Amino acid sequence: MQHILYLHGFLSSPKSIKAQATKAYFEKHHSDVTLHIPELSNFPSKVESQLLALIESTPALLEDGLKLIGSSMGGYLSTFLLEKFGGKAVLINPAVRPYELLQSFIGEHENPYSKEKFEIVASDMEVIKALEASSLSAPERYKVLLQTEDETLDYRLAEEKYAQSQLVIEQGGDHSFVGYENHLPAIAQFLLN
């Protein structure tokens, strides 16, 4: 049995279209894989301890190296975990410097999936910055999917950071990564081989 950890983005959830497409694909084509899709806390100050507790309580995740799929902020968190524990990761339109982007999100929010209300505060930026992997120890362990018309993140930041990784850059698209489900066979192959 192999284990894959899927990390959703900011203001997202395990119920997101990408998370559910990933779940359906692995259930149908890789029944020997257990896909873990935790509901990440909306509070940045709680995410690191949540992820470390999950890994500690699920030793199978580390058996032959972490296998991660991370979207947007989940891509940033996946990079943090991979640099800490080793393994392989597929990142979809990953956030590279979310602590800069989230400056404009300081204030109150409601998660559109869970309806949980929460606040982003200025000190959260330091918390998020502390999770930054400033360099990649093994760039070949990353496969990075980018679309050039991402309206939320500048894809060129990820193109630069993951330049030595396996990059797939598609013209057009958007932050949700249009046509994501078409990449699932290649994602599975990268993580499981």
From TrEMBL:
It holds the Pfam family UPF0227. It comes from the Bacteria. This is Esterase YqiA. The lineage of its organism: Bacteria, Pseudomonadati, Pseudomonadota, Gammaproteobacteria, Alteromonadales.
